[in-house]
């Protein structure tokens, strides 16, 4: 049995290793005040390196984001890369950073440590949006990439995002391997390399060259410049106090779009995000200022990127004056139809086209693929899976020009296998301009797609459950509705008013629709995750429900989608299903779960 170190020992170890006097003094002050509760939170556990790298609050302590954690992580990552990537020293590392507090410092610190190992470093000078790092890794054939950002997290947070040599976010086994390498590096940090100076002959500036190449790539993704329109659509854009505005502005210029109106209060990078509590375009109220600006300016559309500009959303002003915010799935359908039409126009065989979406996203792409004859593949949530799935399909001979997840992330083209909010902004604006010339709006075009492929509507939310044991009880009960026969589902047989036709349990490894093995095609999830499909044959209405636990919050999330020919019928079926999930499946009253 391993004895846990005393709190005093943890404090002494931190003070011994931390090279930064500010964070060292933080821990010393807490120890002087004998604030044991806070010190336990900061020092007892270490922030975990996972497939998203690191992300957390900027404070002193092993469980926080600070100079020492960044230095130790870079030490371990550089060791791992040298041991697992051929010619890593010459191929080098691409580093980017956004405007958050400490981002530039930590980028420089990372550069110093990699260079101290003899590894070439392409350090992107000035703020960049996150997709510039995977673009740089691909363009420079680099060994890996690091982006210092916390994306749309609150202002107190920052992060360390890692891309592998394939220019996609890391997945297993590299996440575990890097985590192990970091632990091995903890006690032998070369403090002489941790100067945050980013100087030396191995640290190379290719910023302008890579940005120029990025905009050339971006221009190639879109159709030819839109001919002048007498009254072009009017756009308002917000970069949510982030880094996106100069990239979006330049992209509008090179693709022939009329300039947009910026939300001035949110246009410039500001790490304190003064006008929004959570700088996430999906959060309720986050777009209020943009919508006010658009209404005042008489604009037709609002465009929005999150602070590191890898995600995108949009809103349209209807003829009634009401603003309608597109869901992530609706934008996914609009983008997929645009990509599909462009592919058709190229004259290439439809059997060579493939598109990818996460398993919790809409099944509308699946319906489109069924009717049009291209291949659709779903994968686990996250662009680490979407990007790697796309690369696998390319290896199989497919062209994969598009992939998305419902959390407003969209991937375009073959050069960036990650979400790109600037590319999505331009694709949407170009689509709108083209539709405007035809006298149509994006919302009207979406209704045309519903007429073509069926009406799809999503409902999503979560149940807050503070007790992990209750969460376990809920999922155990969902797996024990019937006799435990392998050939027969033991899960709920109905969802709302519909019969359950297929169950895929990515926790236990069971798929009722895949005999004779009953093994799911998707890899297993590290948390609880079950997907149900249900159908009413007479009504021609379908439901897809995914239940999963959050890896970072005490939540049971649900993603529910209905589809059919009649929108009112689908809405009614969805409402009954939500009530059934809350009352019977989750037993909300019994366990006192709050629903959002």
Tell me what the structure shows.
Belongs to the phosphohexose mutase family. Its cofactor is Mg(2+). The chain is of the alpha/beta class. The chain has 3 domains: 199 residues, Alpha-D-Glucose-1,6-Bisphosphate, Chain A, domain 3; 241 residues, Alpha-D-Glucose-1,6-Bisphosphate, subunit A, domain 3 (Alpha-D-Glucose-1,6-Bisphosphate, Chain A, domain 3, 3-Layer(aba) Sandwich); 141 residues, 2-Layer Sandwich (TATA-Binding Protein), CATH 3.30.310.50. Helices cover 38% and strands 20% of the residues. The protein has 19 helices and 23 strands. Strands 16, 17, 18, 19, 20, 21, 22 and 23 form an 8-stranded antiparallel beta sheet that branches. The chain has a 6-stranded mixed beta sheet with strand order 1-5-4-2-3-6, sandwiched between helices. A 5-stranded mixed beta sheet has the order 8-7-9-10-11. Helix 1 packs antiparallel against helix 2 and helix 4 crosses helix 8. The protein is globular.
* CATH H-level superfamily title of the largest domain: Alpha-D-Glucose-1,6-Bisphosphate, subunit A, domain 3
State the helical fraction.
25-40%
At the first level of CATH, the class of the largest domain is: Alpha Beta
Name of the CATH architecture of the largest domain: 3-Layer(aba) Sandwich
Q: Tell how many strands the DSSP assignment holds.
A: 23
Keywords: Carbohydrate metabolism, Cytoplasm, Glucose metabolism, Isomerase, Magnesium, Metal-binding, Phosphoprotein
GO molecular function, one term: phosphopentomutase activity
GO biological process, one term: purine ribonucleoside salvage
Main location: cytoplasm
């Amino acid at each position: 049995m391993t004895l846990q170190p005393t709190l005093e020992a943890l404090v002494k170890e931190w003070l011994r290793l931390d090279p930064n006097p500010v964070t060292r003094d933080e821990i010393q002050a807490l120890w002087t005040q004998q604030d044991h509760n806070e010190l336990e939170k900061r020092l007892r556990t270490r922030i975990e390196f996972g497939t998203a790298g690191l992300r957390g609050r900027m404070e002193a302590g092993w469980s926080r984001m600070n100079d020492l954690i960044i230095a130790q992580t870079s030490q371990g990552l550089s060791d791992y890369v040298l041991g697992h990537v051929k010619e890593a020293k010459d191929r080098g590392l691409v580093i980017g950073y956004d405007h958050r507090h400490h981002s530039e410092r930590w980028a420089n610190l990372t550069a110093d440590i990699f260079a101290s190992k003899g590894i070439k470093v392409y350090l992107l000078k000035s703020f960049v949006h996150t997709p510039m790092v995977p673009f740089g890794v691909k363009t420079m054939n680099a060994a890996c990439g690091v982006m210092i950002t916390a994306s749309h997290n609150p202002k107190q947070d920052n992060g360390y995002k890692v891309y592998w040599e394939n220019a996609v976010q890391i997945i297993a086994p590299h996440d575990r391997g890097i985590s192990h390498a970091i632990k091995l590096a903890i006690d032998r940090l070369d403090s002489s390399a941790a100067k945050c100076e980013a100087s030396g002959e191995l640290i190379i500036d290719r910023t302008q060259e890579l940005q120029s190449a990025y905009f050339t790539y971006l221009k190639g993704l879109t159709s030819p410049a839109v001919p002048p329109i007498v009254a072009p659509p009017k756009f308002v854009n917000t970069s949510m106090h982030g880094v996106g505005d100069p990239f979006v502005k330049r992209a509008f210029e090179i693709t022939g779009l009329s300039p947009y109106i910026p939300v001035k209060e949110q246009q410039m990078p500001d790490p304190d995000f003064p006008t929004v509590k959570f700088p996430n375009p999906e959060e309720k109220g986050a777009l209020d200022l943009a919508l006010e600006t658009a209404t005042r300016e008489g604009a037709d559309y609002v465009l929005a990127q999150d602070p590191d500009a890898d995600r995108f959303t949009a809103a349209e002003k209807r003829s009634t004056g009401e603003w309608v915010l597109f869901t992530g799935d609706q934008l996914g359908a609009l983008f997929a139809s645009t990509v599909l039409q462009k592919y058709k126009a190229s004259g290439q065989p439809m059997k060579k086209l493939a598109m990818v979406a996460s398993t919790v996203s809409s099944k509308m792409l699946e319906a489109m693929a069924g009717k049009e004859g291209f291949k659709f593949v779903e994968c686990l949530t996250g662009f680490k899976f979407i990007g790697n799935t796309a690369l696998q399909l390319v290896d199989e001979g497919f062209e994969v020009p598009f992939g998305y997840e419902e959390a407003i992330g969209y991937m375009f083209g073959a050069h960036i296998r990650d979400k790109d909010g600037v590319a999505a902004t331009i694709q949407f604006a170009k689509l709108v301009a083209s539709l405007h010339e035809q006298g149509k709006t994006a919302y009207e075009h979406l209704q045309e797609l519903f007429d073509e492929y069926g009406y799809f509507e999503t409902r999503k939310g979560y149940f807050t459950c503070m007790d992990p044991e209750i969460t376990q009880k809920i999922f155990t009960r969902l797996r024990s509705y019937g006799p435990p026969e392998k050939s027969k589902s033991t899960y709920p047989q109905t969802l709302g008013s519909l019969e359950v036709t297929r169950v895929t349990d990515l926790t236990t490894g069971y798929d009722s629709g895949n005999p004779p093995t009953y093994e799911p095609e998707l890899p297993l999830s590290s948390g609880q995750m079950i997907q149900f499909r249900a159908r009413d044959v007479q009504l021609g209405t379908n439901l897809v429900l995914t239940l999963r636990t959050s890896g970072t919050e005490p939540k049971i999330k649900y993603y529910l989608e209905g589809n059919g020919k009649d929108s009112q019928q689908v809405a009614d079926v969805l409402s009954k299903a939500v009530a059934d999930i809350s009352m019977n499946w989750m037993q909300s009253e019994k366990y006192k779960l709050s629903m959002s």
